[in-house]
Amino acid sequence: MIRPGSFFVLGCIFFASAYAWADPPARPLIYSVNPAGNGDFVGAPHKGSSFVRYQELLFQRISEAGSRSARVLASWREVEAEKGKWDWSNLDDEINLCTRYHIEPVVLICNIPAWVSPTGKSAHNHPPKEEHAADFTTFITRMAERYKGRAQYYEFWNEQNGCSWINDGCDNARMAHTYLPWLQRCYKAIKAVDPAAQVAIGGLDDADGHAPIFVEQCYQLRRDKYGKEKFWDAIADHPYSKRPTDTIEELVRKLDAIRAVAARCGDAGIPIWITEYGWNAGEMGIDVQQRGTAEFLKAFSRPDQKDLLIAQQLAVADFEPVHLGYGLCDLNLRPRPAFQTFQELARPGIPRPFSLRFVLQPDGVPVISGLIASASEKEDPPSVVEVFSEDGKRLISKKGDPNMLSVDLPGLPHETPLLAAVSSIVGDKPDVPVARVPFIVPRGLIPNGGFEGLFRAGIPWAWAVTGPSICRDGGALGKEYCHGGDHALLLAQLPSSPRRAFDDQVEAPVRAAQGDSFRVRWFARYFGPENQAATVMISAALLDPDAERDTRPAGKPIGKDWTEISLDLTAPCDSPILCLHLVSSTLPKDRWLVAIDDVSVEPLRR
Fold first, then answer.
1. What are residue 367's DSSP bridge partners?
2. Other C-beta atoms within 10 Å of 415: how many?
3. Residue from 120, 37, 123, 40 nearest 76 by CA
């Protein structure tokens, strides 16, 4: 049986549709996730294709979670690396993705180019030299003009009271006098272009509750130097918690301390934006990350937090090459329990699947099937499966049962990446998809067995990978990781893994009928430190996708040279799943990789 939530492993691509949120909250932007991730680490061949670009996958995941806003970076050092030479492409891409997926951008203005820097180098921890104030204003003005009508929330700088300002050692709690003149210039330039825009004091480092010191300085300096002039509309905060318990009380204490300062300075009720919060699952555990996500989202919606307008979880995916980090998903965009918790609270009343997959019927026709949990005691609307081509063209739209989904999809093109988006019908149109399943209709018995087709987020198209390993395209690293062709599936165990062992399953559907016999063949090798051996085993089985997986076949060892493994297997049912299971004992402390390539399934003559 496919484990609950495993449909997320398959579903990565999202094609935008009209939003129909059930009972939208009064402050919707408190349900938000930021698009941090690391596409460079997992690797993404075919980077020119928008269908598999990692950055787009991040926004698709954000949308799937139910996020209403996301923080995007307006980095002056990238936009105008050379004076007068403007390149808005990175920010344009992120603003366009926000627009495409109906996400409100919160624009973080940060970083300076080398030509305005007091150190002569581009930086994230210095304001420009004073002589470049006019250049700074020009940058801000151009940005506001470019995105007027598409962005209305801006914050100036990031943790300027901590490690992202002038003094070394993160000693900037009392440096507001150097920050305020630049905030004033930023505020005035944006408001001159777009009076409706909102500008916040940049997200404050508040892990230890120090934010009120900086906020009070800002108010005092504004009063003493600028009179009643206003140049912020909100205060942004990063109330990280270092303890896994009492998180809500700690959160409220930090926000109340900021509120108290604002009230003393005649600014009671000023909006608060939380532009980062979250927990490193590697330090606190997946269960703590999940519990904290639930507690914070519930606290944000309380009446006593009505001035809290924006709250953004730090990262939809890990952004460092570790197995456990701040992400609601891992590097390969496979959701953790906290993602599902966020989704349930951000998208109330939405029917959601707890198993969803594609299989191949014996005649080769793909089927999208699974169970969808009811959203309420009322009868759920019918489901609909829409299939899209790589260029976004809709090829098929078919209705299915609300909760017991099984939709066959005949007549689709072979050997090309396709995407099935599963939604409910709202009115007469599909709602926001509850899941997405990438698949390929093979000409033979198995899709993408050589892994020469597209990868997305490090996983070969039409395959699923479960377990703690990070997945990469071996071809993105070097030919030694490929047995044949230019691509291979590479699984990485890193020293930061809590177990330092392989325990992963690599799966794809097989076109077969019950009782058919096959020879399954593949190639594998492992890479590890010199003079260090490890026992790495790999096995294969044809499984009934609806049956419990209570046994594992005996594995065969692989070594540091390419090992060919061949097994004869019999299909236990129609439309089985091929499962390659990779397992090892505890590995030495260094980095270990296993490459799998050229998987084939051939019928045996009776």
1. 359, 408
2. 12
3. 123
Which two tokens mark 141? 């003005």
Q: What is the mean pLDDT of the chain?
A: 87
pLDDT of residue 15: 33
pTM score, whole prediction: 0.90
Could you tell me if 231 and 222 are in contact, meaning their C-beta atoms sit under 8 angstroms apart?
yes
Whether residue 166 is predicted with pLDDT greater than 70 in this model: the reply is yes
Q: What is the pLDDT of residue 198?
A: 98
Nearest residue to 528 (alpha-carbon basis) of 555, 498, 492 = 492
Sign, Cα dihedral of 254, 256, 260, 262: positive
Beta-carbon neighbour count of residue 142 at 10 Å?
Answer: 16
Could you give phi then psi for residue 253, rounded to 5 degrees? Answer: -60, -45
Instruction: Say how far apart CA 460 and CA 456 lie, in whole Å.
Output: 6
Whether 564 shows a pLDDT value over 70: the answer reads yes
d(CA 374, CA 376) in angstroms, rounded, equals: 6
| 457, 448 contact by CB (below 8 A) | no
What's phi and psi for 3, nearest 5 deg? -65, 150
CB 199 within 8 A of CB 232: yes
Give the strand pairing for 394-400 and 383-388: antiparallel
Amino acid at 143: M
| Dist CA 464 CA 487 (whole Å) | 16
Within 267-361, where are the H helices? 281-284, 286-300, 337-346
Helices 176-193 + 211-226 axis angle, to 10: 70
Q: What is the pLDDT of residue 3?
A: 28
Spatial neighbors of 399 by CB under 8 A, at least 6 apart, are 382, 383, 384, 407, 425
- Please give the single-letter amino acid code of residue 45: P
Instruction: Report the amino acid identity of residue 601.
Output: V
State mean pLDDT over 385-414: 87
Q: How far apart are CA 238 and CA 207, in angstroms?
A: 7
pLDDT surpassing 50 at residue 475: yes
Q: Give the pLDDT confidence of 408-454 residue by residue, as tens digits.
A: 999 999 999 998 888 777 666 767 677 788 899 999 999 999 998 78
Helix, strand, coil shares of the chain, percent, nearest 5, are 25, 30, 45
Residue 350's nearest CA partner among 372, 335, 333 is 372
- The pLDDT value recorded for residue 1 is 23
Q: Is pLDDT larger for residue 118 or for residue 136?
A: 136
CB 365 within 8 A of CB 353: no
Q: How many CA atoms lie within 13 A of 199 on its CB side?
A: 22
Strand ranges inside 76-191, DSSP E = 104-110, 153-158
46 strand-pairing partners: none
pLDDT digit string, tens, across residues 53-71: 889 889 989 988 889 999 9
What is residue 497's predicted lDDT score, i.e. its pLDDT? 67
